[in-house]
Amino acid sequence: MFNKRVKVKDLLASEPTGQEVTVMGWVRTFRNNQFIALNDGSTNNNLQIVVELGMLDENTLKRITTGASLKVTGKAVPSLGKGQKMDINATSLEILGDSDAEKFPLQPKKHSLEFLREIAHLRFRTNTFGSVFRVRHALAFAVHKFFNEKGFVYMHTPIVTASDAEGAGEMFRVTTLPFDNPPRNEDGTINFKEDFFGRSTNLTVSGQLEGELAATAFSEIYTFGPTFRAENSNTARHLAEFWMIEPEMAFCDIEDNQNLAEEFIKYLIRHVMEHNREDLEFLSQRLAEEEKQLPQDKRSEMGLIEKLEFVINNDFERITYTEAIDILLQSPAYKKKKFQYEVKWGIDMQSEHERYLVEKHFKKPVIVTGYPKEIKAFYMRQNDDGKTVAAMDILAPGIGEIVGGSQREERLDKLTERMKEMHIPAEELWWYLDTRRYGTVPHAGFGLGFERMVLFVTGMTNIRDVIAFPRTPKNAEF
Ligand code: ATP
Ligand code: MN
């Protein structure tokens, strides 16, 4: 019964020649007891259904309300009205599901993003979220396309992990032990030998360590999966559950790594520009309208599409951490004491510093390399200066850090030495160290935060609005 349905997007792309079609979707508006704007989520463009006067009884007409679902069969004809190229002159109309107009929370008017977050189960039915999630889909598809074209193997790294070397203190524990009376060791600590996995386990913060294992066999792999961080940062850029893409490449150094990351980001943007033009135009318009309420100096210098075009057509700036700190120290913002946090060599740059570099100084994406080893993870390759490591972060305008990566330390002695210094138990990571024992190779990789990429491409400003059901501190509704 349903298989003859045409998608509104496909229908609108065809010529109306009086052909009979069946469409299904949800009512956005119903005017004059005659014109229905029907949407099926394939595009923001509604299909105009024309119901001839007298065709439907009074009761059926009353049931055509915003949010109701319909099946309509009719003839596709050129529209007489302005604003759309075709009408469907209904010959039959069936109400699949009623929607109580009094109670349906989505009225055909503008709702705030904050309000829509509270009804995240329905917000997909708005134009903004329709566009955001179609773009999100296209980006996810392009991720696989990019790596597949390059011969990378897609690895599914585990979500439950026993190693907490990476995310000390920021992990969600996974356990089946009873909270009220957990089994204890003689010294009073909890006995995780009794736990489900016979040891203490957590949700993963990154698939990198396992990714490295695979890269030292397949040469080039990537992961694309959910990651979890129990950091209590209630910002517009952090989620407790987010998706990350992590390529890992053998026979690859920090420069190859930067080249790949830049090519990858540009490829994703280009894919969306080619396949989601309509959605980008809508989002661009939305952003422009939202920014009208901001003071002039807070508005973006470029429109959304203009910005994306600029990014794909220009090289990312590449600087060292040391150069970045010098730029900050020379900046008018620093001299006028505009930064809240201290600036000096050795700091972990704060969002205000990163944003100054990309938004005020360079006005384009920036790749920063060579960070002090003290602020970076144990597995990053140590540079000859003894102070820095071959780390790279990519900073994007409006977002801050979008990629974090590095060349990995492939020399067993250097790696174990650093682990000792950082109190990382080598016994627990015996399997990781084995890659350095058996055929070690120079290798590198990075993690791209998927939601931050979606933010960048859609021009949305809060990360809660680019994931279907955000998980943030004190919030796991839906
Ligand atoms: P930040 O400094 O912004 O908190 P990070 O240095 O902790 O990020 P990495 O561990 O390098 O991040 O993770 C790689 C990428 O994952 C980041 O560049 C970012 O795009 C993304 N990311 C990290 N934490 C989060 C989060 N809590 N929510 C969403 N994306 C995140
Ligand atoms: Mn990082």
TrEMBL record:
The keyword Protein biosynthesis applies. Residues 133-470 form the Aminoacyl-transfer RNA synthetases class-II family profile domain. Its main location: cytoplasm. Keywords: Aminoacyl-tRNA synthetase, ATP-binding, Cytoplasm, Ligase, Nucleotide-binding, Protein biosynthesis. CDD domains: AsxRS_core, EcAsnRS_like_N. The keyword Cell inner membrane does not apply. It is an enzyme of class 6 (ligase). Its EC number is 6.1.1.22. It is found in: Cytoplasm. It comes from the Bacteria. GO terms for molecular function: asparagine-tRNA ligase activity. It catalyses: tRNA(Asn) + L-asparagine + ATP = L-asparaginyl-tRNA(Asn) + AMP + diphosphate + H(+). Belongs to the class-II aminoacyl-tRNA synthetase family. Homodimer. NCBIfam families: asnS, PRK03932.1. This is Asparagine--tRNA ligase.
